[in-house]
Every structure is written in structure tokens, then in C-alpha cells.
């Protein structure tokens, strides 16, 4: 082992498990790419003010968990704790919203950083695939995103997840609710920290997981009862469209999220096999965010799904993905001349699009055949001096054990025929 280890709260993705991560990213992005979402990639760090303004100064993500740094040039930067603020910043900077077609639909995939208390399913470096639909207020767009996330999870074979749905109201009705909630919270027996939170960000108290807090929340005013007519109608339409697609959800009156920018539609995907870190993804509408970061009014909606927790959810459900084996053909050469020739053949196979590997390291026949087995290849190409003197190689089917001589020049065709 090296004297160094991956930093606390992080882990390395290594084969073979890493293949599942790639497959999860692929499965989540496929329905998006199929629905008009274009790929966006932004830097891993941003002006720290983008996050303090966009995500919210009072959120845990910004106040406690953000990795910040001052560069030698004096810039204050933050490692991105989430994707939405950066993606919206990039869309505005690139003037995508002025090109005519609203909504601008974007998807992304990348690493995010939060200085959290590390535990199973909660890391300081994690990976998300996300989607944002920028610049349209249309309940069908909220519904589309919920339906696409459901489709992504189902395509992976996940079954034990639930969709929680709520509306957080808008700038008309939420302030009225906020006050009613604060009045209620002020009358409870809460610790100092929580009372402070009730003043700054009272909706977050609803999300407090502690039993001592939850049991006092019986009878708490619910936003549902304060929604204005426009928010109510919008929410009903989202619910109807999602239901019509056959996607089952649960109304969750207490669902809020850890970011300040959400308005109206809010949702979370939870998996029942993950213990306390049960959220595998979440998102919602953020109609005010663009203005908060200096842009024009651009009502938008999006989600981010956690890749790490989705993999854990697959493992919890015992779902084995049907991953294509990386190598189709494994070449085993005995002797120097054979090595040279077979290495050339491997190159030729690869250039023809066949996934091929070679027995490196100058091993004997036995060791090389072990490598061939381990590679999972369906075919082995074996050749020694005697074969080559006859202008042939031995093509072995690793599943049946059958072996036959194939002329060197016909190898590509023979391999293709066997793999077909
Ligand atoms: P959030 O923006 O906090 O709702 O995050 C969206 C999704 O990212 C969550 O549902 C998780 O699946 C994932 N996620 C967030 N924070 C972490 C973390 N610290 N470790 C692993 N996954 C995370």
C-alpha cells in the first residue's frame, strides 16, 4: 500500500464495481438525451458568491459544508456543492436563453463536494447526474422531469423507490405561510440552534429528523393550506400529468429541501433500502434563482440524482446490471515471434472495433490462459511457433472449450462470425 490514502469521506471507483457507476450515469442520462436535453459541463469551482447567493447563505450546504479557498490571486472560490447554480450561470453567460428556444434544456454529470459528516451513503466527494429546464413555467415540464427520473430508475431495474411530491408555493403565498410557521415554531420547546433556524429558514425545521422535534410538529401549519390559487392550480396540473403517465407518487406536506431557491414543485426520490441516507435524488422548481444571481426572470425546474446512492440502492435490491464484458477476444502468444505477430493481430481487431486484449508480461501458456479466463473474453486466440509456421492460430471458444485452427489472414472474419 502507498503511504497515502484517499481523503476522509471519499473513495475510489475501481473495477469491477466502477463499471456499475458508468452504467448508472448512462442509464440516467439516456432518457434526458432522448428528450431534448443538451449536455453541459461547468468548472468544478466557481466564485463562492454564486453559491452563497444562489443556494442560500443560511443553508447547511453553504454555511457548513462548502469547501472554499482563496487563490494566490485573491479570488474567493468554492468547490461546487451542487449543480443548478453553476448550470444556470453558464446558460446565462452563454446567452442560451436569448437564442429563442425556451426552455433551454440541459443535462450534466460530475463530481460535487460537501464537507459533511462522512457515513455510509454520505460522502465529501460524490457524483450526480442532473437536468435543468430553464426559462419556462409549464407544469408539463415539471412532470416531464419527474417522469424521466422515474424512467431512469426503472430502466436500471430499481423498484423499491418512492417519489415524494410537494409544492412550496411562490413569492405571493410563501411569505404568509412562513410567518404562520414561525409563530407556531416560536411556541415550541426547541434548542437555541433550532430556534435560530426557525427565524432564518423556518421551512427547514420541518425537515428536522430528530424525534424530539418531529413530535412537537403535530398540528404544524402546512403550506398546502396557504397555497395561492395559481400555485394550487399549477400543482394540481403537475400531479395530474405525472399520474396520467402511470407514475406513482406520494404527497408529502412536509417535504422541503436543503436549498433556498426552490419554489412551487418540490420532489424527492427516496429508496427504502438505504437507511438514514435514503434520498437518491431530488429537485424542483426554482423560479427566482436567475434573478438572485443577477439574470433576468427565468422560471426553471430541475433535478439531480445521486450516482453513489443509486449504486447503493441497486446493491440493496440485489439488482445485477447486465454489463457488457469489456473484452471479447483475448490473445495468448507463446514465444517471441508469436508475440510480435499476435500483438499485430490484436491491433487489427481493435481497429476493426472488436474489444480485444493481449497477454502481457511474458507469461507462459498456463498463466496466459488464466488471464484469458479472468478477462471474461468469449474467445481466446492462441498461437505458438508451430501454428505460425503453418500460417494459422488456434481460435478457442471459452464457453464451450472448442478449439479450431484459423488461417491468420481469416482471423478477423472468423472472430466476427463467432461473436455474431
Ligand atoms: P441534494 O441537492 O442535496 O438534494 O442532492 C441530490 C442528490 O445527490 C441526493 O438525493 C443524493 O442522492 C446525492 N447526494 C447529496 N449529497 C450527497 C453526499 N454527501 N454523498 C452522496 N450523495 C449525495
From TrEMBL:
Quaternary structure and interacting proteins, as annotated: Homodimer.
User: Which reaction is recorded as catalysed by this protein?
Assistant: tRNA(His) + L-histidine + ATP = L-histidyl-tRNA(His) + AMP + diphosphate + H(+)
Cite the entry's keywords alphabetically: Aminoacyl-tRNA synthetase, ATP-binding, Cytoplasm, Ligase, Nucleotide-binding, Protein biosynthesis
Identify the residues that the record assigns to the Aminoacyl-transfer RNA synthetases class-II family profile domain, covering every copy.
Answer: 24-324
The entry assigns this protein to a family as follows: Belongs to the class-II aminoacyl-tRNA synthetase family.
The EC number on file is 6.1.1.21
Q: Where in the cell is it found?
A: Cytoplasm
Task: Keyword check for Protein biosynthesis, yes or no.
Answer: yes
Pfam families per the record?
Answer: HGTP_anticodon (PF03129), tRNA-synt_His (PF13393)
Keyword Protein biosynthesis among UniProt keywords: yes
Protein name, please? Answer: Histidine--tRNA ligase
Q: Which Gene3D superfamilies match?
A: Anticodon-binding domain, Bira Bifunctional Protein, Domain 2
Amino acid at each position: 500500500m502507498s503511504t497515502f490514502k484517499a481523503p476522509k469521506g471519499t473513495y475510489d471507483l475501481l473495477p469491477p464495481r466502477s463499471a456499475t457507476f458508468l452504467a448508472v450515469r448512462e442509464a440516467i442520462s439516456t432518457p434526458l438525451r432522448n428528450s431534448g436535453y443538451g449536455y453541459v459541463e461547468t468548472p468544478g469551482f466557481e466564485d463562492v458568491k454564486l453559491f452563497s447567493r444562489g443556494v442560500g447563505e443560511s443553508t447547511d450546504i453553504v454555511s457548513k459544508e462548502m469547501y472554499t479557498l482563496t487563490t494566490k490571486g485573491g479570488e474567493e472560490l468554492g468547490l461546487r456543492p451542487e449543480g443548478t447554480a453553476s448550470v444556470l450561470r453558464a446558460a446565462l453567460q452563454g446567452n442560451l436563453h436569448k437564442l429563442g428556444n425556451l426552455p433551454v434544456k440541459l443535462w450534466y454529470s460530475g463530481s460535487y463536494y460537501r464537507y459533511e459528516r462522512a457515513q455510509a451513503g454520505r460522502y465529501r466527494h460524490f457524483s450526480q447526474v442532473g437536468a435543468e429546464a430553464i426559462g419556462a413555467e409549464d407544469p408539463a415540464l415539471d412532470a416531464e422531469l419527474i417522469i424521466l427520473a422515474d424512467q431512469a430508475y426503472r430502466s436500471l431495474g430499481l423498484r423499491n423507490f418512492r417519489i415524494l411530491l410537494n409544492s412550496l408555493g411562490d413569492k405571493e403565498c410563501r411569505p404568509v405561510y412562513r410567518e404562520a410557521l414561525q409563530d407556531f415554531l416560536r411556541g415550541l420547546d426547541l434548542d437555541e440552534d433550532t430556534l435560530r433556524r426557525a427565524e432564518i429558514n423556518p421551512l427547514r425545521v420541518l425537515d428536522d429528523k430528530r424525534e424530539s422535534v418531529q413530535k412537537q410538529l403535530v398540528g404544524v401549519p402546512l403550506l398546502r393550506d396557504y397555497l395561492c390559487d395559481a400555485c394550487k392550480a399549477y400543482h394540481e396540473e403537475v400531479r395530474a400529468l405525472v399520474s396520467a403517465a402511470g407514475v406513482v407518487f406520494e404527497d408529502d406536506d412536509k417535504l422541503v429541501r436543503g436549498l433556498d431557491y426552490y419554489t412551487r414543485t418540490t420532489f424527492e426520490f427516496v429508496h427504502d433500502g438505504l437507511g438514514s441516507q435514503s434520498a437518491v435524488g431530488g429537485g424542483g422548481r426554482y423560479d427566482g434563482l436567475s434573478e438572485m444571481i443577477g439574470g433576468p426572470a427565468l422560471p426553471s425546474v430541475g433535478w439531480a440524482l445521486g450516482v453513489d446512492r443509486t449504486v447503493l440502492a441497486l446493491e440493496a435490491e440485489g439488482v445485477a446490471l447486465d454489463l457488457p464484458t469489456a473484452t471479447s477476444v483475448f490473445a495468448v502468444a507463446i514465444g517471441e515471434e508469436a508475440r510480435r505477430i499476435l500483438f499485430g493481430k490484436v491491433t487489427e481487431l481493435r481497429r476493426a472495433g472488436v474489444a480485444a486484449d493481449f497477454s502481457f508480461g511474458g507469461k507462459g501458456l498456463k498463466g496466459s490462459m488464466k488471464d484469458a479466463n479472468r478477462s471474461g473474453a468469449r474467445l481466446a486466440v492462441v498461437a505458438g511457433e508451430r501454428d505460425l509456421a503453418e500460417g494459422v492460430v488456434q481460435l478457442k471458444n471459452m464457453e464451450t472449450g472448442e478449439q479450431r485452427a484459423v488461417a491468420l489472414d481469416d482471423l478477423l472474419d472468423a472472430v466476427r462470425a463467432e461473436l455474431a
